[in-house]
Design a protein that fits this description.
The complex is a heterodimer.
Chain A: E1 2-7, E2 10-19, E3 22-25, H1 27-34, E4 37-39, E5 42-45, E6 48-50, E7 63-64, H2 65-71, E8 74-79, E9 84-90, H3 91-100, E10 107-109, E11 115-117, E12 125-131
Parallel strand pairs in A: 1-9
Antiparallel strand pairs in A: 1-2, 2-3, 3-7, 4-5, 5-6, 8-9, 10-11
Chain B: H1 3-13, E1 18-24, H2 30-40, E2 46-48, H3 53-58, E3 65-69, E4 75-80, H4 98-122, H5 132-138, H6 144-161, H7 165-178, H8 183-193, H9 201-209
Parallel strand pairs in B: 1-2
Antiparallel strand pairs in B: 3-4
The chains are: A alpha+beta, B mainly alpha.
Chain lengths: ~130, ~220
């Protein structure tokens, strides 16, 4: 069934099978949609690899994306009726910020759609201010 | 609105190796934020954050929330409400003194801007640039409930983008339940439900229910 998955910063709408708290995705769809690929050392995205275990990868190669996220300490929530899943950022990020105090980077658009990154301003003092229209 | 204040501060200090970045926590996107940004004519980066990503990354639960970041990219103030204060809270009461409120706003604004100038001039020697252990102490620890609240809020913004208002409210309700201290979740959800509701009777009832507790985190500025 067509399912929308947000996994950290990557989002994709792809074919997936939900089964309770599990969400099974075929390996090619997983790689195309969310950038995780099955390798001999485990499931990898960029430099990050998670060793596979029996319940994570089915005999047909399908991966339980929700179990992968929970294993990495990501919060996983879903709306079953709307076939939408969110696997949040890993808790490691917050712990890393608390250790290093390095300001987390982000990329956001201005009114004209031009994307700005916090890291563009490294070398200057930055005052970040959040506000809202509401 | 504070955007013109930030723009003026940027114009004053931008050639002293300083930048202001203002970020609208607005799931409604440019449609909601434009009416405030355009009149301020910002030349500093004035950004729009439909998913409230920055509030997530910096663990902010209210607006305004500010952080100060030094030249090496390290946080020296993680979370302060700028020059916002409790002065607005009696606004709906009969006989409320608006002049006194504006005077207090002006005093807090001037104190805060003086602190920023002091930091820009003196860097780590400024008393307002906090040492690492104090910065850490002011950052809340991670909580599984808060992480789930964030994920539900994100799910709500996805459904909103898709035009599924009911689904979005259902997800926002979970976020609010798991993190009742987040005014951002409450007020953004109210606003998307109905324009004006974020400052309507529901909001004021919740502010009143705070009693002696502060609306903004207390700070020493």
């Amino acid at each position: 069934m067509e399912t929308t998955i947000l996994f950290e910063d990557a989002s994709a709408t792809l074919d997936a099978t939900a089964d309770g708290e599990s969400l099974w995705v075929a390996p090619d769809a997983l790689e195309r949609g969310l950038g995780w690929s099955a390798k001999p050392e485990g499931l990898c995205r960029g430099p990050v690899c998670v060793p596979r275990w029996a319940e994570l990868v089915r005999a047909d190669g399908a991966v339980d994306v929700a179990a992968l996220a929970r294993h990495r300490g990501q919060a996983v929530v879903h709306d079953a009726a709307r076939r939408t899943w969110v696997c949040g950022r890993s808790g490691e990020l917050r712990a890393g910020v608390a250790r290093s105090l390095v300001a987390p980077d982000f990329a956001l658009p201005d009114l004209d759609g031009r994307v700005h990154r916090l890291s563009d301003w490294r070398g200057r003092k930055v005052l970040l201010n959040s506000w809202a229209s509401w | 609105m504070d955007l013109p204040v930030w723009q003026a501060l940027y114009e004053e200090l931008h050639d002293r190796n300083f930048v202001v970045i203002t970020i609208a926590m607005d799931t409604g996107g440019a449609d909601d934020a434009r009416q405030w940004i355009e009149p301020a004519r910002p030349t500093h980066p004035s950004l729009i954050d439909t998913a409230h990503v920055v509030a997530e990354l910096y663990d902010w639960v209210n607006v305004p929330s500010n952080a100060w970041i030094d030249e090496e990219g390290r946080i020296v103030r993680p979370n302060d409400p700028g020059f916002a204060g409790e002065y607005f809270r009696g606004m709906m009461d009969e006989g409320f003194d608006f002049k006194a409120m504006m005077a207090e706003y002006g005093r807090m604004r001037d104190r805060y801007l003086a602190a920023v100038r002091d930091w820009v001039a003196n860097g780590p020697a400024s008393r307002w640039a906090l040492p690492p252990d104090v910065v850490r102490a002011r950052m809340a620890g991670a909580s599984p409930d808060h992480a789930r609240a964030t994920a539900w809020f994100r799910l709500g913004t996805l459904l909103h983008e898709r035009g599924d208002a009911d689904g979005a409210q259902r997800a926002f309700a979970e976020a609010k339940r798991l993190r009742p201290g987040s005014w951002n979740y409450k007020r953004q959800a109210w606003h998307l439900e109905q324009a004006g509701k974020s400052g309507g009777p529901e909001f004021w009832a919740e502010v009143k229910a705070l009693g002696d507790r502060p609306y903004y985190p207390r700070h020493e500025l």
